[in-house]
Structures are given as structure tokens and as C-alpha cells.
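User: Predict the full complex structure for these chains.
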Amino acid sequence: MGITLYLNRKNNEIIVKEPQDVSSLTNGFYGKMDKGIIHLQPEEALYMIDIRNAKCIDETGNTYTFNDIASIFLKRKKLLARYLTFKDWRDRGLIVRPNFEAHRNYGRSTTKKYKGGDFKIDAYSLQGVFFFDDLITIIDDEASGKELYEKYWIGQFGTYKAAHRGKIAKLDIHETIYLLKHGNLSLKNTKLKEIWVEANERIKYFEDMYSVYENWRNKGYVLKTGFKFGTHFRIYFPGASPIRENDEWIHSRHVVHIFPRKSKMLISEWSRAIRVAHSVKKTFILAIPGKKLEIKINPKKPRLDFLLYHRKKGGIETPKNGQPRFFMYSLSEDEYLGGEELAEVLFEVKYYGLEALLAIADRESSITFYVVKRIELPGSDYEHYEIEWMQP
Amino acid sequence: MGITLYLNRKNNEIIVKEPQDVSSLTNGFYGKMDKGIIHLQPEEALYMIDIRNAKCIDETGNTYTFNDIASIFLKRKKLLARYLTFKDWRDRGLIVRPNFEAHRNYGRSTTKKYKGGDFKIDAYSLQGVFFFDDLITIIDDEASGKELYEKYWIGQFGTYKAAHRGKIAKLDIHETIYLLKHGNLSLKNTKLKEIWVEANERIKYFEDMYSVYENWRNKGYVLKTGFKFGTHFRIYFPGASPIRENDEWIHSRHVVHIFPRKSKMLISEWSRAIRVAHSVKKTFILAIPGKKLEIKINPKKPRLDFLLYHRKKGGIETPKNGQPRFFMYSLSEDEYLGGEELAEVLFEVKYYGLEALLAIADRESSITFYVVKRIELPGSDYEHYEIEWMQP
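Assistant: Here is the predicted structure of the two-chain assembly.
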């Protein structure tokens, strides 16, 4: 026999009171016990009906189906995204608890430390022509173009992966602006101001893109286009050089994607970028440029959705023997996520000292998980995160 | 010694006239011969300077560098994207000729034929609740939900890849609308019209997405979310079933991405979607829904950029021994491509009976090629193309 749920039609509370049911749910860490009665959250009640063969009745003996119960809570935001992500975690035999139980810093968050550093370029006197339609600068002075490429990996001298082939250097739009500001580049046909205007007109959130480029470059990192890997930039650690050692091309290990605070991105597009990086075995770094806002934490109404307990040696973690590991944010495929919204959520996770887990329910109710880890990049005001696909 | 180019400052024509240079360029199929003199296109002249160590002078003996020559043609659209894609093809030892030489149907285009068919659903009487915030319908009548899933692969009964787990069926927004229109579904809390309005408000180009879904579904194809593969839908051929045979899950081989005529997509985003499909070994289908426009071909000004000769058994094709194989469209990473623009370009390629090759110059001047093949889907008014990454 399944469990019996009782719905109180006056306050829409769902409780469990049969002793054997109470004991079964207590063992599974469902609901909240109060004087021998267990009060369930809507997601918990739906799970009982969907998966645990529970029956739900009210005072007068009417029966309630999954949809009957769900309909009562229809006004709740992303009810199904929450239910489906809750269900997935539970289906794995792991414990989920409501967000409002978060009450302190759990000391669980991991920070990734990246090297700081600085970068200075020699006082060259570089001359080039800027091609507005292509957003590329060409330097046709062979010696300067070559040195710029070999010493700083700025521009592409000759041909991609065949620098000896050809005599001109091509600077992309970020390299062009960087050298105009910091590298004594002058252009025969235009000035920084005009290029800046053009780039901002042509490329959405260009200012954000460039500021991330400059932020990392100033610390000695090398940033080149991430086109082949589906992201804005690929990134090499300080000291990387395009000159092949033992005829081996250096492979980047990280890619950087910029998520402007004011932008909104479809979850499916967001996920696509992470997938490409994953398929080429690169670490995906998300950069949220711009000034961090003051974010208020309301302990009674967290932005995040569920506290997740994970595994430990020899078993699973529970509220009895451990602490939550992740704070889950439930999303669905066709939703839009804003840069600022994500920044807020990640700030909240940090406040509680948990790891952030983004759980995305696709249109087929399959769930994809991403763990988000904060990056410490000395001297940077921007927020950076490593995002990794995870199978719990 | 390199070749000598002569620039005529009056008309900005670039010619080659030294007999040994003329003979060298003739053998390489560069330029156009007229009375013993070769007239070069700007891309050809730039290539000579960049790669073939050519010197360029004018009547009075002034020397011109790469940038000097490029600056003369600075007003030409996407000059560098064109130059870099031209260069890549030439660097492979293959022949490129100017677009205006296209003069007939070359009979080279390949069409992919897909099965037609029709689809009828039994006259069920289905009831569900629609969750607006999640754009999902739940059917909690176990028998109907299960049959719908097993017989038509509509909805997800139980759990993804574990249909026995759970008792409810989830229909996504496309399945919901399809069943409201064609499958006798009724919803307890709302009607088709309201859902249609909501979906169009929430999802950009929803009408286009749904119309592609319906177009294929009506022919018996099964469409499910392509979320895991970075596209709008994955697609199974008629007859596919979610019921495992010999405990083997059926894998889709194709994904469909919708490119609305009115939308503009950043080339890098566009390419990202193809990359994910490629990394999971699926054929990428691009759908351009909506009415085909009447497109005018101006033989003197093709939209496409270069005629490409490819390889043949034992060597390369040339204008002497063969015909062009591809018509190349040159693009760059940071450019926006419109659905209608692409449709026009592909119409033009068809007109000339060539295969379409999209060549994308990234910010590092590396080129990525995609071959586009027209799909014949009987009974469909929409345009569909297979797009495949290619290494020439």
C-alpha cells in the first residue's frame, strides 16, 4: 500500500499522519515533523503521488490527483521546473530540503585560485590600417608584425598555425583597441574613438567583451578568439607563446564566455556554449563584467530553490549526519536567464557557503546539472566562475 | 625574384606584364588575360604581395605595400573576409575565380531526399492541466499518457529514459499545441488561444519554431527537444519508437535548427550550434520556415563571392579541365547573418547548379568551411538544408 496524504482544504496544507507513513517519510527526510504529523512541501507531495504511489484525500474523502494538487499551487513560480529538478535529485536516492532551511555559512564552497600578474608591452611605434567592415587591423611592416606575434601573441602573423606563410599581421578588434590604448599603435585611416563607436554599434555588449579581454590581458594572460570552441575567447596562462616547441602547438585549456549583467540569455543557448567547451575538454569560464551590486539576502526567501545533500564515503549525506553541499537553482530550457540575476544567485550561494548547482529541466523533463565555482583572479573587480557539467 | 605588379593610378587597375610573370600567373589561373597582359582582382593582387613576394609599383616607380593596395579598395564590402577566404583556398593549392564568371547551371548541386508520409492520431479524449510558467502540460491519466508516449512518442511518460518510473505524462509546448489542434486534447485550465499568446510572448519566433515542428510531425517524423545537442529539436525518422528494443535506446541521427527569415544571428552563435551537432555526430538540418520569396538573380552582381574549383581524381580541377564545384560565401565571425539573406544566397547557388560553401574567417584569420546541401522533403513548402563542417 502507498502512503496516504491528507489535504486540508482550508489552508491547502498537505500532511501525513498514519504512523507507518510518518515513520517511512521521517526515514527518507521528507517534510517537517510537528507533534507526530508530517507537513509536506508541494514538491514533496507531488513526488509521493507521482513516484511513491501515494493517495491524497481531503476531510470529506474526495481524492486528489497529481494535477488536482498541482493546480492548487499553480501560481507558484516555475512549479514544474522545481518539481522536476527536485524529483531528479530524489530519484538518485539523494536528499533534498527546502531552501528556507538554509540558516548559516556551511563552509562548503570551493574557490579556484588563478595567478595574478602584470603585463607591459615595449614602446614600439606600430602603424596599421583599420578595415571597418571587417573590424581588423593590418600591419604590413613585417618585422614589427612578427615580433608582436612571437613575443606577445598579439595578432596573427602570416597564416594561422603557419606563421611563416605570409608577411602581414592581422589584429582583431580587441587587440587593435588594446594596442591603441597601451601599445603605441597608430592607424593611417582612423582613430581609437571612431573604432570604439563602430565596434559598439556592430557588436552587442562590445564594451563588456573588451573590458574582460583587457582585464585578463593586463594580468599577462593571452586571449585569442574562441570561435572554434564556441565561446568568445580561449585563454592561455601567462607565459604562453605561439612559437611551437618541438613542433607541438600549445593547446588552450580554458575558454571565457562573457555574460553581461544587462543581457538575458536563453538557457538553451547558454547551455550550448558550455557543451561545446565540454566536448573539446576545455574549462568553461563565465565572466560577469561590471560593478558588483549590493545584494540583499532575505533568509526567509532565498532566490535559490533547494538545499541538496550529496554523497559521502560509504553512503549519502543526510540532515542527520551531515550538511547540505549544494544550493540548487531550478531552471528550464525555454527560460531566459539574466546576467544580473545569475550574479545575485551566485552571491547568495556564497553567503551560505555552499556550491551552486544549476539544474535545467529540458522540454522532455530530463535534467542537466552544472556546478559553478567561484574564481579568484587577483586584482580583478569582475566576477568569474568555472562552470562544469556534472552527473550527480 | 618575385612577380612585379603594376598599378594604374588613374583607374586603379592592377596588371602583370613581364612575360615570365604572365606565364606563371596564367599557369596558376590568376587574373584575366587580355592581349598578353593579365588584369588582377584586388584579392589576387593582395595575395601576390602577401604570399608570392610580389612587388607593386606605379608608373612613376612608387612602391605599394599590402596596406597601400588594400586602402584603395577600402570601400568594398567585407574586403578582408573575402581576401582571407580566397587566400585559404589558394593556400590549399586549389583554384578560385571571381563570382562574375558564373554563367550557367553547372549541374553540381546535390539534393538530399527525405521520406514524405502522413500522420494521423487516434481520436482520444485527453485531459490535462497546462502550467503557464513552465510551458508544460501534465496528463495524469496514466493509461492515456502512457499510450500517447509509447504509440506516438508524444510527451514524456514517467521519467526520461525510465518510462516505468512515475505515472504522469509531460507534454512540451509544441506537443501541447499539436494535440490541441490535431489530437483532441482539452485543458482544464485554459485554451489553445491563450497558450499561443503566452508562448509567442515568451519565446522569440515561437510561431516559426512551432510551424517547423508541425511540418515534420505531419509527415510522421518524431521531434523531441534538441537541448542535449544544442539545437531546437532532434528528429527521428517515421516509425521511431521510444520503446527500447533489446534494451537499446534509439539514438537520433539528425537535429533541426530553425533560422527564421526575419531573425539575424551572429555567425559565431550560428556556428556554435553546428559544432555541437558535429561533436555528437548528428546531421545538422537548418530549417528556414515561411514563404519562399521571389528572388532576382543579377548575373553581373552575384551575392556570392567566389567560384571554387576543387579536386578530382589524380589532381585538381581547373577552368581548363573542369568546372567550378562550389560557390563560396565569405563571412566573418563577428558578422550577423539574416535568415532571409541566407535563403537568397542559397537560392542563387541553386540557380547556378553549384554547391554552397560558407567560409567563415574568425578573428585570428583561420577559416572554417560549411557545405550546405538542399533537402527535398515531399510536401513541405519550407526550405531545409543539411549543413556539414568540411575540410577542403
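Residues 77-118+255-392 of chain B form one domain.
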